[in-house]
Design a protein that fits this description.
Length: 168
């Protein structure tokens, strides 16, 4: 739990509010992130989170409980890697108030302390300055650049590769 937000697993009864906020935030999310747009897509989204290879969470306001955004730890690989890849997005009207910085920081602590991961990564498209600023605030470093790395909304998109390792 943070000072203003808490992180919890996304669940079936989030469907209505999650879809409403994702739709209201479509312009903010643009082609940076693709979230479910229907009940069917939300069910498929939830089904991805098997808690072993992926954990899906929402950032909730401690004051009132509304969803300020989402953070997932995807592509978890164990063995010699012990890493996961973060996906995150703010929901309007709660963006730009520091909630997501707090929520993603909690997700990083969860990945390191509870899941025992050694590395968390964030793949960010060039020009997504808000996302870069967020991970920079949390101490991530830019490790590289992968052309045509992830297919989002039908297009293979270049990504910068940002990462943080747990050295504690
Ligand atoms: C990237 C994204 C999640 C950032 O969310 P956000 O809500 O803007 O994040 P925050 O509110 O934590 O931080 C934004 C700003 O608010 C500021 N802020 C405002 N009030 C604040 C407060 N009370 N406390 C702390 N920070 C505050 C932060 O300092 C930060 O400033 P800066 O980035 O101008 O330096 C959001 O822009 C988004 O959803 N983008 C589209 C999806 C996306 O790109 N996802 C990532 C794909 S890689």
């Amino acid at each position: 739990m943070g000072t203003r937000v808490l992180l919890r697993r996304v669940r079936a009864d989030d469907e209505g509010r999650f879809l409403e906020l994702a739709a209201a935030s479509a312009e903010l999310h643009r082609s940076w992130v693709a979230l479910p747009r229907s009940a069917k897509e939300f069910a498929a989204y939830l089904a991805r989170f098997d808690q072993a290879s992926a954990v899906g969470m929402v950032v909730c306001l401690r004051d009132g409980g509304d969803l300020a955004g989402m953070v997932n730890i995807n592509e978890i690989v164990r063995g010699s890697y012990q890493r996961g890849v973060l996906g995150y997005a703010a929901f309007l009207p709660h963006a730009g108030r520091g909630y997501m910085t707090e929520g993603v920081a909690l997700a990083v602590r969860y990945a390191f302390d509870r899941l025992g991961l050694h590395r968390v990564e964030a793949d960010i498209q060039p020009g997504n300055v808000d996302s870069v600023r967020l991970v920079e605030r949390l101490g991530f470093r830019r490790e590289g650049f992968s052309p045509a790395y992830i297919k989002i909304e039908g297009t293979w998109r270049d990504h910068e590769r940002w990462a943080l390792t747990n050295e504690s």
